[in-house]
């Protein structure tokens, strides 16, 4: 009787440990899944913010930050290749009036 009762206790202990292990595995699996989803969403938002930081949200035109990055990259490439780099800057007078006119035209198309 003693051997049977100790074997039953061992089997009961192993069964309880298995149940606890299974529950913990499921819980931690969900936690890891949600952490991975959070990291994925965070990286997508970071890429969107990075892209949005280089463009004006109203006009969609590149801003000064993007110009600086592009100009630095092109000047480094020209220096490495020992090429010349030209730059043409155009100042548009009445830019605000021009943009308002363009927005009105875009509104009429919708």
What structural class do you assign from the helix and strand content? mainly alpha
| CA distance, first residue to last residue | 88 Å
Content of β-strand? under 5%
User: Would you identify the regions where 5 or more consecutive residues have pLDDT less than 50?
Assistant: none
Number of strands: 0
Question: Care to describe what's here?
Answer:
The protein folds into two domains: 52 residues; 50 residues, no CATH class. 76% of the residues lie in helices and 0% in strands. It has three helices and no strands. By secondary structure, it is mainly alpha-helical. The model has no long low-confidence stretch (mean pLDDT 85). Its EC number is 2.7.7.65. It comes from Clostridium autoethanogenum DSM 10061. It is an enzyme of class 2 (transferase). Pfam families: GGDEF. Keywords: Membrane, Nucleotidyltransferase, Transferase, Transmembrane, Transmembrane helix.
Quick overview:
The protein is mainly α and 110 residues long.
Q: Topology of this structure?
A:
Layout: H1 2-52, H2 64-81, H3 95-109
List the keywords.
76% helix; single chain; 2 domains; mainly alpha; 110 residues; 0% strand
